[in-house]
Amino acid sequence: MPPAQFYHWADVKIKMWVLNLGGPVKVAKLNQDQAIEQGAEILGETVIFGIAALCLVLDYMRSSRKEAAKEIAAQERLKKMENGILEIGMLSERQDAQIRELTRAVMALKPKNIKLQEYVPQQVKIEFEPQPETVVLVETDTDHHKH
Asked: How far apart are CA 51 and CA 130, in angstroms?
């Protein structure tokens, strides 16, 4: 059975079933011109459907690649941030150790007229009792690298 005749036969059967008109025993065949026209319509619709389906598949593949690239970029940014946090943590630990070392050194050299106040982040407060001037020179890590 040629595709146009099969399509006509299936179309008539489905319409009769949907409309509850009962199924005809025999479906009349299309004449040659109607069959050619019906075949051309089927072929045209198949081509259009195929092109539309191909466009959908290609668009899905493109967007999947784009999303994968975004995911990779996000993973890289996250890894950089994690590495930065680790570096900051190690730097903080190193600076804490240097502060403890400097505090011990100052305490060892401390004359009786100097009172060290509690450590406040990013600054050290030193309070002097009124007596002759005492100068305390503290060399930072960056000053050490300059020499």
From this structure: 92
**Token pair for residue 19?**
């409309």
Cβ pair 140, 98 in contact under 8 A: no
Q: Summarize the confidence of residues 107-111 as an average pLDDT.
A: 73
Q: Where are the alpha helices (DSSP H) in the chain?
A: 3-18, 32-109, 141-146
- Token pair for 143: 């000053």
As a whole number of angstroms, the distance between CA 96 and CA 77 comes to 28
Rg of the chain over all Cα atoms, to the nearest angstrom: 43
pTM over 0.85: no
Q: How far apart are CA 45 and CA 37, in angstroms?
A: 12
